[in-house]
Amino acid sequence: MMKWRPARLSSPLSPLLPISPLASPTLGTLSVPSKLRNRIPSQMRRTFPAYILIVTLLILLFKAEVFPSQPIPSASSVITKRSYLQKPLGSSASHSSLQDGDFPKKIWQTWKVDPYNFAKRDKNTARTWTTKNPGYRYEVLTDHNDLLYVESKYGSGPGGLNRPDIVEFYKTVTAQIIKADLLRYMIMYADGGIYADIDVEALKPAERFIPTRYNASDIDMVIGVEIDQPEFKKHEILGGKCMSFCQWTFMCKPGLPVMLKLIENIMSWLEELAKAQNVSSVGEVELAFDEVISGTGPSAFTGAILEDMNSKRKGKGKGQKITWENTFHNLDESKLVERVLVLDVEKFAAGQGHSNSGNHDARGALVKHHYHASNWPSKHPRFKHPAYGEVERCNWDAECVRKWDEDVAKWDSLSEKQKKKILDLKQKEYEQEMERLRKEKEQAEALERLGQAERERKKLEEEERLRKKARMEEVYRKAVEEDKKKRNQQALLEAAGLGSLQQQGLPVGPGRPKDKELALPGPGFVPPAPLPVAGFPPVL
């Protein structure tokens, strides 16, 4: 019986080997208990260190996945603790390069339904963005996929900002106009590009947003003036919204702190409003028209941008404070202020009838706002006098506003009889106005029906013309084929020495057997060119 086995010395588990098969002295020195050594096959003994390594790695991975080192706070606590959770989107390499270079070539819109289900008017306006900007990506967030976007961009998953407080807040908001305003700011912070309301038509390509005298690397945001009526800043109703930038169309690079600040401002504002109204959730807050404008709309947008501009200027320790009156009032050309390019009112808000906005036919107009999707004011009441209505109907006309203020001020001093007389008169004027609008609508519908009938008539005429043309072409084709056939027959006879069709007494034209030449099939027929030099056999 042999007492020494060389095979054991060559085993990968033998401590005599200088280097293990995994190049690891630790694993190479592992040995199997003597009782099991003869029972375990040699192949398993060789791979035993690898098994141990794999199992160890799996245990470590499982522990890291199941027991994270930093637990995510609950939804109830994240709303009060925001800053420490967020990942630094703006300082990442990709977004830093964008802020130093061109704007993302993306066009964003939000609406109730996806583009396949757009109404005709929405489809027409939306198409202008893609036709004028064929090199841009176009995306619409809807009432059905907006939350998925918010969770992917602001949630705790891969690529998210780890801001569950923002996600939870967005879920809680119920007012559609608040969600619409909030979502556009969230899109611009996370992705950047161009945002445009669904009822905004593109008149010029996006490359015209930045005049050629500027370099895109020096600009972080492109906005335009909407309302420039600072003379009303002391008005009780109009004062808070008489100076504002347009937010139905603007362009941003991603990761701008002002956009995140705007989002957080809205969250704090609604939370405080919920406390003031003594409701348990921001979704139960009731909002008036002016509260929407100042809380999430153009006034909030403008205030955040002005604050950001002044913060940057203060950090540099130079320059006077930026205000609307000393910087943007009567702006007649674009101006770059603290990396924000502000365009004059004609660019994004032409044709408003105020603020010297001109009209949409002007060379400088870049977009056209149709306002057909702006029905949110009907859900958020604004001050409406029982006799004189809303001061906003004056559309910033100074004389109209003065008269409205005067009439409202006198109202309380009138007797009940005088008030009733005025109300009856206003009711009559209202009915007359409604009748006028009804007739205008009927006329427009009649013209539309007439136009539709005319289009149908022209369509039928065109179809008939095409049918006639097809019949004429068919007749011509058959005539050419018949003539070619007869010419080939004549060539065959002549090549065979039998003479022409006329000499054989065969007809050469319809109903005329003795004609000296072939008869044309009809008026306007142009016979094909004669055959080349006759040979035998001829080409059929």
UniProtKB/TrEMBL annotation:
One of its GO terms (molecular function) is alpha-1,6-mannosyltransferase activity. InterPro entries: GlycoTrfase_DXD_sugar-bd_CS, Nucleotide-diphossugar_trans, Och1-like. GO terms for biological process: protein N-linked glycosylation. Keywords: Coiled coil, Membrane, Transferase, Transmembrane, Transmembrane helix. The keyword Kinase does not apply. Residues 491-540 are annotated as: Disordered. One of its GO terms (cellular component) is mannan polymerase complex. The chain crosses the membrane at residues 48-67. Residues 420-473 form a coiled coil. Belongs to the glycosyltransferase 32 family. This is Nucleotide-diphospho-sugar transferase. The lineage of its organism: Eukaryota, Fungi, Dikarya, Ascomycota, Pezizomycotina.
